[in-house]
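Q: How would the structure tokens look for this protein?
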Amino acid sequence: MMKTDSKTLSEILKLHAEYVKEVEFSGIKPLSMEIYKTNSHNFVRWIKDEFAPGSKIRKGALS
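A: Here is the predicted structure in token form.
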């Protein structure tokens, strides 16, 4: 079950997209950039009840 309502999720997704752009243009090293993006993506997936910390990531889940 999703952890919030669809309106709030929509705002979270919008803000996450802005965050990813900011990370991509921040000048940090590529590995650090991927860590920032993966961890935030997993947080969004957790909100959508598509991810559990410590679980195995399904193939293609980050696409």
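The two ends are 21 Å apart (CA to CA).

The longest helix spans residues 6-24.

Upvote if useful.
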